[in-house]
Amino acid sequence: xxxxxxxxxxxxxxxxxxxxxxxxxxxxxxxxxxxxxxxxxxxxxxxxxxxxxxxxxxxxxxxxxxxxxxxxxxxxxxxxxxxxxxxxxxxxxxxxxxxxxxxxxxxxxxxxxxxxxxxxxxxxxxxxxxxxxxxxxxxxxxxxxxxxxxxxxxxxxxxxxxxxxxxxxxxxxxxxxxxxxxxxxxxxxxxxxxxxxxxxxxxxxxxxxxxxxxxxxxxxxxxxxxxxxxxxxxxxxxxxxxxxxxxxxxxxxxxxxxxxxxxxxxxxxxxxxxxxxxxxxxxxxxxxxxxxxxxxxxxxxxxxxxxxxxxxxxxxxxxxxxxxxxxxxxxxxxxxxxxxxxxxxxxxxxxxxxxxxxxxxxxxxxxxxxxxxxxxxxxxxxxxxxxxxxxxxxxxxxxxxxxxxxxxxxxxxxxxxxxxxxxxxxxxxxxxxxxxxxxxxxxxxxxxxxxxxxxxxxxxxxxxxxxxxxxxxxxxxxxxxx
Length: 482
Fold this sequence. Notes:
alpha+beta; 482 residues; 20% helix
């Protein structure tokens, strides 16, 4: 597939462009740039994408088997695997050993045997992408993952890929607004809109989907390049498996015709255009595949359940900080929120529980990055004594830069977004436990997997060039009442 011309619908490049098109591709097609994120077509569209991709790969295997006279024909039993990254739950006594959160070995090994039965490891492995820090303008010229991601150890902490909260939802999609903000398994109701990137992430799309994309980083961390990293397909196979597992718990898909009859565009193994609908992908049997297990790696209950992400920023601003600030990829970035007007008194009243009908929304506005930083970020509220544990009481939630990478410097329709969290219950709980200080509200944004800090200038060799790093940033932070 990688050797086929980009104009061939069964080629690696063409199939990747169906998801998103990087600026290095000049070809156009009506099937390009389709991927819907943050809307309720996220799951059925990606299931169709997987289904036709699997058929294309199987046909390629059959063709190679015939040319090489390989028997029995392996295409008759081949199926797309899934990366079950949440299979290994956290160990209270961890040891340095392989974890399911590591990239599978076949994807992080540069060489492979030259023939199916060989052990010579002399052929280039087409599943491998180097792990390197690649900044603009070379980002799209070098297929890569984020620095150090081809590791035999964990790619992401378990906190960032635990699907428990998603699997605990009972509603597929909800309409998010100021009046209604119901957490849901799938993403926001988007009616007939196939929005390329939207902010109404459902629980599954938020965790683990976005966090895995951001954690692998490189091309996988950017919408336009994600499907060009082979691990993309195993990641989405697992997301689809979790959907099947969720349905096996007697949950239901939408029954609205605008969801059922939405048409997508794909190509089959013969390069022929296909226009299936969501309805065509609702059952496993009609599409002839099943999953080995639906309950393994489906999540474990966290010690502390963080607040739910929301799509509203609230109405009355109580406190705000307005720096356009670059986030450190090496450690915490702290922001102190200054009360607006008489907000200090109002906020203290809310915290004390005197206004239970009022909600508090914490929003990090204008999240963006030059290139994917290779890690999600954790958000904390007033971490006492610097306590920045995602399993602790101060943890608010995640910021993923998947869909917010401004690699081309143009911030197209999926560049930059706001991350909002309903912290009402959390603030009351912190107050009741005496964990909320009387001083200003402080928000800490911390890389999930911090990069080692570069050497101090005085310790660096003469003539050394300072290490370049991604520049994730945010526009401002606000605390609002609804």
